[in-house]
Specification:
42% helix; 71 residues; 2 strands; two-stranded antiparallel ribbon; mainly alpha; single chain
Length: 71
């Protein structure tokens, strides 16, 4: 996927930063749309994985690395 001037490997961030094996259904599509600069409204049930849908694109756009420890 292209993010303006660079190619973004979502799986790299998912595995190495967030320590997840795979995206849940629709997460990749939502995250891709956000990274590509589209406006996105996401209304989903509890445990859908909404947090990842805003944390991963925010991390990519700011170029930083952070990881929230599990509770």
């Amino acid at each position: 996927m292209q993010n303006g001037r660079r190619k973004v490997d979502l799986d790299f961030y998912l595995h190495r930063v967030f320590r997840k094996k795979s995206f849940r259904p629709l997460q990749r599509e939502v995250i891709s749309a956000v990274v590509e600069g589209h406006d996105v409204f996401l209304q989903a049930s509890t445990s859908f994985g909404k947090s990842l849908c805003y944390q991963l694109p925010a991390m990519i756009s700011h170029g930083g690395w952070y990881r929230y420890p599990p509770n």
